[in-house]
């Protein structure tokens, strides 16, 4: 039992080898850089236990930022949080890695 858990943990990765990077031109028609300057992007590592939609509801409560952060589902394993204030983003980042549902 323990060895199967160890193998599962070793298989988890934050590497994005399979992902294609998106290069946004720095032109006025593309305002994504400005809109996303106060955001973080994350991904779940255990799709069997972690649901991105539930994570988006639960993490702002855990951070005590109920109405001051907006969560967006990017895929079935990736998400983005956009903060209203830089200090709140910094406070969340200072807390380090966050866990959710195992």
Q: What is the N-to-C succession of helices and strands?
A: HHEHEEH
Please give the order of strands in the largest beta sheet. 1-3-2
Q: What is the CA-based Rg, rounded?
A: 16 Å
Distance between the termini: 17 Å
Q: What is the tally of helical segments?
A: 4
Category by helix and strand content:
alpha+beta
Work out the number of β strands: 3
Give the overall average pLDDT: 79
Fraction in helix:
25-40%
Walk me through this protein's architecture.
The protein has 102 residues and is an alpha+beta fold. It is built from 4 helices and 3 strands. It has one domain.
Give the tags.
about 100 residues; alpha+beta; 3 strands; globular
